[in-house]
Model the fold of this input.
Amino acid sequence: MNNKEIWIISHFAGSPAHGMVYRPYYLGKNFSQLNETTRIFASSFSHVRNLNPNVEGFFSEELIDGIIYTWIRNIKYYPSNKILRFSSLALFCISLLILPIWKFEKPKVIVVSSPSIFPIFNGWLWSKIFRCKLIFEVRDLWPESLIQLGNIKRTHPVVILIKLMERFAYKVCDICIAVMPTAHDYFSAEGLNLKKLNIIPNGTEDSELISSELSIELPEGFIVGFAGAVGNANNLDLMIDTAKQIEDNSVQFVIVGHGEEKSRLKEKARILNLKNIHFYDSIPKSEIPALLNQFDLCFISLKYTQLFDYGVSPNKLFDYMLARKPIVYCINSGNSPVLDARCGVEVRENSPKLVSKAILNLKNEGIDKLRELGNNGYDYVIKFHSYDSLSRDYLEKINE
Done:
């Protein structure tokens, strides 16, 4: 192993045992297989995890699949409590300032993975202390996503602060790695020297095909399924409205996951008296392959907003491809991954009528055509979105 570590600061980082966010885990796991030690600094509490670690002291360490997790103790909050959520982001950064980093092996590089963007100051400070490279990784365009998806005004003090932090990040980083493939104009307009920019998208890996037995029972019929976070950005109203359009009960819609929008969506389905849509709680990640295996079509959507003109790289999309399932892609994005992979259909309008037509057309294609589309997606994701190759690309940038 290389004596110097790769340090990743990622407030929301998770693992298969804890739940999302998974990208730091997959990168770290593959770095480990390439003889590089990775240390992930993450908050002890995240509202997007299924299970949070128990941290009794100021911080604790845990070894997961060759990755050293340094869990920083933090406050708990309900997702709806915006004050505590923001306080958690701030407290994490303050805690990093007083963390006894001299006790750890020295880093060869500091990666600050956004969101949250606030630890960029910590990463910059550490890079100066250890005289090492600073990478700013952009998984979400803060504050643009807060403005367009959270309906927060550009003049809000928090938005102004985040915008200042964003421009600071672009100025001080040595390398900027982004997952969105068509955001070059955005980065340039915000002051990033495009020579620093590298696109390394999200991905998946073959080990995700190993599955536990499914713990939930799905309905009979042709299943159009969604598995993932049930949040504001996911635009699952479109799925419910599409279920209303399709009165043929041989088509069943399934939503598996949790999030702040779930209660409202369940109530909407009840009011519409829909019998062909079913909600399930989150399941362990180890069961996801078994779940996707029972879907006939996989559904993915995001809100129709200019934010996605910069391109998207949704993790669940690549999970669907890995499962060899045809996909109904309802995102008006700057890239066209499903068309590129020839693994399903894209609907570029927020139209339940058009989505229902696309679903019924695919259903009528027959099993052989659906299998062909699924195989196309699998071939595509293995070629372009395997974390084995993405991690090698990442490491190449680190070692330049």
